[in-house]
Amino acid sequence: MKRTITYFVLTCLWLLLCLPGLPQTERKIDKVVIDPGHGGKDPGAVGKISYEKNIVLDIALRTGRLITDSYHGEVKVIYTRSTDEFIELYKRAQIANESGADLFISIHCNANPSSLPSGMETFVMGLHKSQDNLEVAKSENAAIFYEEDYKQQYEGFDPNSDEDYIILSLFQSSNLEQSIHLSSRVQDYFRESTGRKDRGVKQAGFWVLYKTTMPGILIEAGFLSNPEEEKYLNSEKGKNTIAESIFNAFSDYKSDFEKVNLSVEPLVKKELPVEVKKDERVVSFRVQFASYKKEKSPEFRKFKGIPDISVYEHDGHYKYTAGNEPTPEAANSLKAGLIDLGYRDAFVVAFVDDVRVEMGEALEILAMQNGKN
Ligand SMILES: [Zn+2]
């Protein structure tokens, strides 16, 4: 019996290595969703002279206009709202997912019980490292309390439960690296252009980021609870500078991602730190256990017991994977566990920087990197 299994595993591995190369996906960023937080009956944070919903809508529209004008229609901008209307959180993610966008940018403003905190921060999906970060996610997710049937729509998620944020963060986006790349750029430009406090790139469980399937960030553009910053956020100069910063970050991200020289010049030319690059490509192995024609967003708590679930799209199918292992061996033993759980057709797939590649290519990169160490 053992022998049969060994032969079976070897045959599987051999088949995997011989699979024809996956088609080279054209790396293009030509559709972006801009999501101004709150709206309508939900004002968001309330300052002394303004509502968050109005400021973020204004900044969102300015950012979108810069993108549309600069790329002459080459990049499509989709807004989750372009007027003062209430849009449910789940609908925002739905709009992004159904549009097949390459990027999701959510724009918000912060508030704090104290009037002292100031500055800008950008979030990506993940587990919060501090209570402050958790509080930001809690207050943004609280938008769902404005919805009548939020208990059905959010799969039992309770924005006030600390435990739910830990569960939420287990479903970490497979686009984390890209999201961090973009958010670092946003913070770079914020720091350089606005001269305001750079609070950095952070992680927390925001429902919209959890539900969107493309790289996504959530910008907190400043504190309405700080009177001086509220004035800045309401000024022409403030709103323009913030929009230009987001645009420049988008522009950098687009050209970094597409690896071409674009004719678009940044609006604000700044010398940003250039990192020295060694081969830092992240090679990982995951176990593919399910594939659906229709997107079945990794339903909250549904795949219980399966670690590190992520999803990628290929040939019109949404493929679900488990684990994120540094070696094929580790992925193989995970596969055995999944087969035990009843996913008989589970098999190992390779990723480089979160992009599905041939097993051979991944092994080659891995061998090269190990050779250098
Ligand atoms: Zn907000």
Keywords:
single chain; globular; Aminopeptidase; 373 residues; binds zinc ion; alpha/beta; 41% helix; 12 helices; 2 domains; 19% strand; Alpha-Beta Plaits; six-stranded mixed beta sheet
Notes on the structure:
With 373 residues, the protein is of the alpha/beta class. It has two domains: 228 residues, Aminopeptidase; 92 residues, Alpha-Beta Plaits. Helix 2 links the parallel strand 1 and strand 2. Helix 2 crosses helix 10 and helix 7 runs antiparallel to helix 10. The chain is globular and about 60 Å long. About 9% of the residues have low confidence. It binds zinc ion. Zinc ion (ZN) binds next to loops.
The CATH superfamily label of the largest domain reads Zn-dependent exopeptidases
Which small-molecule species are bound to the chains here? zinc ion
Whole-number count of domains: 2
Instruction: Please report which band the strand proportion falls in: under 5%, 5-15%, 15-25%, 25-35%, 35-45% or over 45%.
Output: 15-25%
Number of strands: 11
Structural class: alpha/beta
Residues in helix, %: 40-55%
Q: What best-fitting shape do the alpha-carbon axes yield?
A: globular
* Quaternary structure type: single chain
Question: How far is the N terminus from the C terminus?
Answer: 40 Å
| Fold-level CATH name of the largest domain | Aminopeptidase
Q: So, CATH architecture of the largest domain?
A: 3-Layer(aba) Sandwich
